Amino acid sequence: MTTPATQPAQQRLPRTLTRDLSHHDGQTVRLQGFVHARRDLGGVQFLVLRDVSGVTQCVGSGLTLPLAESSVEVTGKVKAHPKAPGGFEVQVEDFRVISAAVEPAPVEIPKMEWNVNPETMLDYRVVTVRGLKERAALKVQAELVAAFRDHLMTEGFTEISTPKIVSAGAEGGANLFPIDYFGHPAYLAQSPQLYKQIMVGVFERVFEVAPVYRAEEHATSRHLNEYLSLDVEMGFIEDEEDVMSLENRLLAAIMTRLKTTAQAEFDLLGAHIPDVPAHIPRITLLDARALVQEKYGHVVGGKDLDPEAERLLCQHYAETAGSDFVFVTKYPRAARPFYAHPDSNADGTPSSEITRGFDLLFRGIEITSGGQRIHDHAMLMESIATYKLKPETLEGYTEVFKYGMPPHGGFAIGAERLTAKLLGISNVRYARAFPRDRHRLTP
Fold first, then answer.
1. What is the reported pLDDT for 6?
2. Which of 98, 193, 214, 370 has the fewest CB atoms nearer than 10 Å to its CB?
3. What is the pTM of this model?
4. Catalytic entry in 50, 311, 356, 417
5. What CDD domains does the database record attribute to this sequence (predicted)?
């Protein structure tokens, strides 16, 4: 029967989640959740209830079912049923509407697919984000971030929080969102890079989980203008190999945790959690460009790898080394920011062309940019001049290098991009609850 929402509950049972119904076969339970789907077959009503842990089928008679997405409470007896979600259904004894939807949902959540009318899916994100696959992607990302934090803390890192309103860009001033800061020009931070380097002088090993902002006019499936950056910086390194080794261990720890905490989400999305090699393969940028040209006939233009070259290089290592990951190393100075540490020539002098920068590719796309940073003040000032930057705009950053900064390096992982590639999501916008791209400011 249906109980009015205002009726007080007497001797209420503790709430049971749908994932735990197998432990209550034959018992009476109390569920709370949302109307995921409903059917009325005359004298019998079927309600699929969705809570944070999954969905279950509830069956009753004489029920007045509210609109989909209404929040409800169901009390009833658990019964094994081979065709019901999870193998159990609830035979309704009492039904209560907690908060009724006042109009039909703009999208039928059980019928949503990412490849069908994606703009509509994003226009109504306040509702569509409730979908099972949509929230599964966000759950995986939450577990990924938690594993990121946990592992770094076991390696002696300290979490920091850096400004997101800045007076200059971390990478030379390009692609910045300007804002009015009490009558003064300011910008949204495109990276915590300069601050996390400063904090190496405090804690030696630091990390941050925070949004960053890039005013890039991309309209692709792999770019966002606001995304969650997982930033790492560590001091007293020998060279960039120490940084890559750390990321290797970190990724292994993340995947291990995901196998424990998010396997159900991967299963729902038909995705596979990769194994991380004990030593992720490395290849220099010049050799990578040559490889994709010689093996696949793809000629790479520009200073970096283009998307097709990234895909082909990952294909090569998946086939020859069984690795979904590959580090591309020794980037030219022209393709790296001013703070990238130059590599050493054969005689030990700094190279004028090659840096100790690297990218990490995963399943055909770059997910990390990193490397060793310049720590010597004179070398840094020379690099700023070479890049034709204004030293006065970077004084707050360069000042710390007058005071004994150690050799250091780090990297940044785009959380949405990694999540999307892990789950086989074709558009990175679906790996963020409320994405921001060049055309979208709502919801």
1. 47
2. 98
3. 0.92
4. 417
5. Asp_Lys_Asn_RS_N (cd04100), AsxRS_core (cd00776)
Which tokens belong to 344? 């050493």
pLDDT given for residue 439 in this prediction: 86
Binding-site residue set = 171, 214-216, 222-224, 366, 369, 373, 414-417
Of the residues 155, 204, 216, 241, only one is catalytic, namely 216
- Catalytic residue chosen out of the listed positions 50, 96, 205, 223: 223
Q: Which residues contact 189 (CB under 8 A, 6 or more apart)?
A: 162, 163, 164, 165, 166, 170, 212, 213
Burial class (CB in 10 A: 0-12, 13-18, 19+), 325: buried
For 132-431, CATH gives 3.30.930.10
Residue 223 annotated among the catalytic residues of the structure: yes
Locate CATH 3.30.930.10 in the chain: 132-431
CA–CA distance, 155 with 136 (Å, rounded to integer): 29
Q: In the chain, where does the domain assigned CATH 2.40.50.140 lie? A: 15-99
**369 given a catalytic annotation:** yes
Report the topology of domain 15-99.
OB fold (Dihydrolipoamide Acetyltransferase, E2P) (2.40.50)
| φ/ψ of residue 39, rounded to 5 | -145, 140
The pLDDT averaged over each successive group of 10 residues in the chain (443 residues) is: 51 92 97 96 92 96 95 98 92 97 92 72 92 96 98 98 87 78 95 94 98 85 91 98 98 98 96 97 97 96 92 98 97 93 92 95 96 97 93 87 97 97 94 92 90
